[in-house]
């Protein structure tokens, strides 16, 4: 797969000119109202604004979004969760739409991770709200030593994660580049 990409040589630029960071992450949910309640009431995000609906009688939806040309984006909503990147959630109606969220092991699998300062308090909060936690918090080893994490599921089955490393991770001691982390 790596051979598909043009490798940087000589005077070729490496990376996107002007790259400043991740602005937002987007994903599709089956019920926008349920997802909004979950992200606002349980997670603590803020709903910022909404757009839509969007549809096209031509090929705009497939040309610009890579979805079925008759797909209807009922609405999309933007959220802000403390100091991380923004995210947007979509509710689509589309021919041949897959209703099952991908697992992490599936191609296109993904998860959204929330940094918390107190993992145990955050897990207890999720449990009080009836959220399904996958296993128990796990302490990382190797370069990620110092981090604890746990996966959990949204009401529609999307995988999310809580992560915390209040004293940093082991790799930081000798690395010239650090992963982004929230300033808390």
TrEMBL record:
Pfam families: Glyoxalase_4 (PF13669)
Keywords: Metal-binding
Keyword match RNA-binding: no
Residues annotated as signal peptide: none
Residue ranges of domain VOC in the record: 21-165
SUPFAM superfamilies recorded: Glyoxalase/Bleomycin resistance protein/Dihydroxybiphenyl dioxygenase
PANTHER family: BLR8189 PROTEIN, METHYLMALONYL-COA EPIMERASE
Protein name: VOC family protein
Organism per entry: Streptomyces sanglieri
Organism ancestry: Bacteria, Bacillati, Actinomycetota, Actinomycetes, Kitasatosporales
């Amino acid at each position: 797969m790596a051979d598909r990409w043009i490798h940087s040589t000589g005077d070729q630029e490496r990376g996107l000119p002007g790259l400043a960071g991740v602005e937002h992450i987007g994903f599709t949910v089956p019920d926008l109202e349920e997802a909004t309640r979950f992200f606002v009431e349980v997670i603590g995000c803020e709903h910022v604004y909404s757009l839509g609906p969007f549809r096209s009688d031509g090929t705009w939806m497939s040309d610009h979004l890579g979805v079925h040309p008759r797909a209807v984006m009922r609405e999309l909503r933007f959220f802000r969760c403390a100091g991380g990147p923004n995210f947007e959630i979509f509710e689509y109606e589309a021919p041949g739409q897959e209703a099952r969220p991908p697992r992490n092991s599936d191609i296109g699998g993904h998860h959204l991770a929330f940094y918390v300062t107190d993992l145990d308090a955050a897990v207890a909060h999720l449990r009080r709200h009836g959220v399904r936690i996958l296993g128990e918090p796990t302490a990382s080893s190797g370069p990620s030593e110092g981090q604890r994490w746990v996966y959990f599921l949204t009401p529609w089955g999307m995988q999310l994660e809580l992560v915390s490393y209040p004293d940093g991770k082991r790799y930081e001691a000798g690395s010239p580049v650090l992963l982004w982390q929230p300033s808390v």
